[in-house]
Amino acid sequence: MSRPSFDHATEAFDFIDRLENLPSPQEVMKETANSFSLFGFENFIITGIPNPKERFEQAVLLKKWPAGWFETYAREDYVRVDPVIRLCRNTVQPFEWSEAPYDREREPRAAEVMDRATDFRMKDGFCLPIHGINGYEACFSMSGVDLDLSSRTKPALHLMAMYAFERTRQLLNPLPCRGADLLTPREREALMWAAAGKSAADTGDILGITERTVTAHIASACQKLDATNKTQAVARAMQYKLIRI
């Protein structure tokens, strides 16, 4: 799929602006479905990764999944054998479903999950693992049959998915308001340039400081925002209105 005239960064920031004004998870779901369809995605789910004593259904925050697939996935307890979920537990980096390893011969149930998903037009997918400071594990997983996944689109999808997760969580379980002075001016600048797609080296050149100093500012911002990575810190800083793009 190729859409050369589509401005992925602009769509990502417009999506964030639209989500900020939505008052309910249901409206977030509709807007997320509409926006992600521009990249070819037909289905998505935002869910916690259940512990051994927790049912999959109890962990789901928001979903647009075919009814038959959700019922099947829950009934068969596929979350315990899903290669995508397994990889989510072991990485903080977004990945394509095809990158989640499993052995068809030795793991027939894992193969079954992936094969049956295709019956519901969930042939390929992209997944964002989410790891909280306190051990919370979740993911934003999206799928379709004709996806726009490239080095240009993936950063936009990463930020959009992270913000959708943060906005959904905020609506379901509001976090305390963070003061404008939570981050230093340099930390805010570092996150703003990160949101614009600049590397630490690029940001250092722009601000007249070293790459190492930029990295330190971002690490400090992550700690203050209880974020496990730069993209989550950017999403939370935007949600708390600590930075504007």
From TrEMBL:
GO terms for molecular function: DNA binding. The keyword Transmembrane helix does not apply. Gene3D superfamilies: Transcription factor LuxR-like, autoinducer-binding domain (3.30.450.80), Winged helix-like DNA-binding domain superfamily/Winged helix DNA-binding domain (1.10.10.10). SUPFAM superfamilies: C-terminal effector domain of the bipartite response regulators, Pheromone-binding domain of LuxR-like quorum-sensing transcription factors. This is LuxR family transcriptional regulator. InterPro entries: Sig_transdc_resp-reg_C-effctor (IPR016032), TF_LuxR_autoind-bd_dom (IPR005143), TF_LuxR_autoind-bd_dom_sf (IPR036693), Tscrpt_reg_LuxR_C (IPR000792), WH-like_DNA-bd_sf (IPR036388). One of its GO terms (biological process) is regulation of DNA-templated transcription. Residues 176-241 form the HTH luxR-type domain. Keywords: DNA-binding, Transcription, Transcription regulation. It comes from the Bacteria. Pfam families: Autoind_bind, GerE. The keyword Transcription applies. Coiled coil: none annotated.
